[in-house]
Amino acid sequence: MYIAAVRIAYDFGCAAIGIQYQQGLKDLAPASDLVEGLLNNAERPPVYDPNTGEELFAEQAIPHFNEVDECAGVDALVTNRVWTGMGLDPATTLHDVRWGEHYSGEGIDDFVWMFLISGAVPPAHFIGGYAGASSERQPPMYFPFGGGTLKGVSKPGAVVWSRVFVMDGALHCDMGRATAVKLPAEETERRWQMATPQWPIMHAVLHGVSRDQFMARHKANHIQVVYAPSDEVADKALAAKAAMMDELGIQVHLCGDVKL
User: Fold this and answer.
1) Which CATH number fits domain 69-254: 3.20.20.70, 3.30.200.20, 3.40.50.720, 3.20.14.10?
2) What is the pLDDT of residues 12-22, one digit of tens each?
3) Whole-structure pTM over 0.85, yes or no?
4) Bridge partner list, 93
């Protein structure tokens, strides 16, 4: 499936692709989550053109959106172009916003969200990268034919979050800053067991956006996240992304504590 996805993207000149497993593919094939995570990672197994032998999209991430979320595809593509242009790692994750609560300890005293998706996370986002990744069989209640996840714990660091959505017949984008934090192993396991332990996890603190504000505003359970090497660089990258979105005619809404 991974090789086929890369070749289809190349053959059709796709800037981003989506694997619509919820639209029937899950009843025909194993889950695509391991494939999706690899696609979103710049460092990934090579795929070659069967006719020319050329490596396709060498050393590039192929922006991928899952669950037929085309708005997330737009978001991932803009992020890819901006982060690549700034010389940053363009790996993105489309996470589910699953749950959260206040956590105190380990230098943290804040509301910490649990972001969790069924496997489509690039290894670049994990503590330890590929070495910190594992693959577990997908739960049969979701994926009757199984298939592997790409499981890991997201590394602590500076994050830009966003969500593209349609409102009043126009494209909009909410975006803001966050910090991915590292929780103790037992707390991570507790949170995993409250949801789906086979799936990758991110512990995130949103900057200047409370739980109630987020739940009242956010248009879906999906949220796009991308790392930057520092808070300063994340602020600059967010500003560049907001400017690109605006130039494309997408109405941008800056949420919480944002420095421009």
Assistant:
1) 3.20.14.10
2) 999 999 988 76
3) yes
4) 225
